[in-house]
Amino acid sequence: MSAILLERPVDSVEPPPPDATRRRWRAALWTLPPMLLVLLFAGYPILRVLTESTVTSDGRGTEVWSSVLGSESFRNALWRTVSIALASTAGCLVLGAFLAIVLAFVPFPGSAVVGRLIDTVLTLPSFLVTLAFTFLYGTAGAVNALIAELTGRDTPLLNFLNTPLGVIAAEITFFTPFVVRPLLAAFAQLPREQLDVAASLGASPWRVLRQIVLPEARPAMGAGGSLVLLLTLNEFGIVLFTGAKGVLTLPALIYTRGIVTFDLPGAAVLASVQVALSLTLYAAYRFVFARVTARKGQ
């Protein structure tokens, strides 16, 4: 027996069975078409944008990157984009959490209709919300007309649509349903018995909300907030239709460089920065989500 063991190499590994090898190759072949589609519809346009960003008058180089990234307009647009996206996301989280809690735990006549109206907003283009804001809160809108009728004012009282506040308000109105929907799904899975037991033990509604409801809603709020932040970073229609000329975000600056002034290399640089922001946000979300999932699994 010992002689047989000595004759066999220690580091010998049993080859995988033919069926396992065949299954691996079959799985690899099934994943090949989706990967090719992703490379065609996502990778190729990004590669073309990066290639266009290196075009200069003398050939190719990094002069366009240096001039665009060093310009004051880029810094202002980047700051404006990030600040509007963060403020809009915070507003959507607060308003979305409030609406979801009311719809889920405070029954009232017409709650189902309100829920369907919130879902309807998801199907509308963003510029329709901006047009509605113009008709309601514009300088010649219905609200200012009513205030002028009641007070006799000659100048409009509300004049915020052309400011960052108007863009933030329109984005909160349009993107709040993206927070409400995941929260309603999370609240639907919350055991009602747990809430009844907490209430029977004398816990106040605020304590039940703070210690039971909101902790269960954190993953849904994180998912909805990440989606809203990604969408607001890339939002262009609301900024364009508000007519806020002083509110220049990165998407608006890309439009100005590429369409108005026909500076394609400069627009390509800005688009590359926009893509990098979106991919960084997505990678951060995946990292945090994996850490939270691993912690829950422990």
Envelope shape: flat
Question: How many domains would you count in the coordinates?
Answer: 1
Helical amount: over 70%
Task: Classify the fold: give the CATH topology.
Answer: MetI-like fold
Largest sheet: 2 strands, antiparallel
Q: Strands of the largest sheet, in order across it? A: 1-2
Beta-strand percent range: under 5%
Looking at CATH, the homologous superfamily is MetI-like
Distance between the termini: 45 Å
Q: Quick one: how many beta strands?
A: 2
What count of helical segments does DSSP give? 14
What is the H/E order?
A: HHEEHHHHHHHHHHHH
CATH first level: Mainly Alpha
Backbone structural class: mainly alpha
Q: Architecture, according to CATH?
A: Orthogonal Bundle
Folded structure, characterized:
With 298 residues, the protein is mainly alpha-helical. The chain has a single domain (59-297), classed as Orthogonal Bundle (MetI-like fold). It is built from 14 helices and two strands; from the N terminus they run H-H-E-E-H-H-H-H-H-H-H-H-H-H-H-H. It has a two-stranded antiparallel sheet with strand order 1-2. A hairpin with a 2-residue loop joins strand 1 and strand 2. Helix 2 (18-52) runs antiparallel to helix 14, helix 6 (126-137) crosses helix 8 and helix 9 (177-188) packs across helix 11.
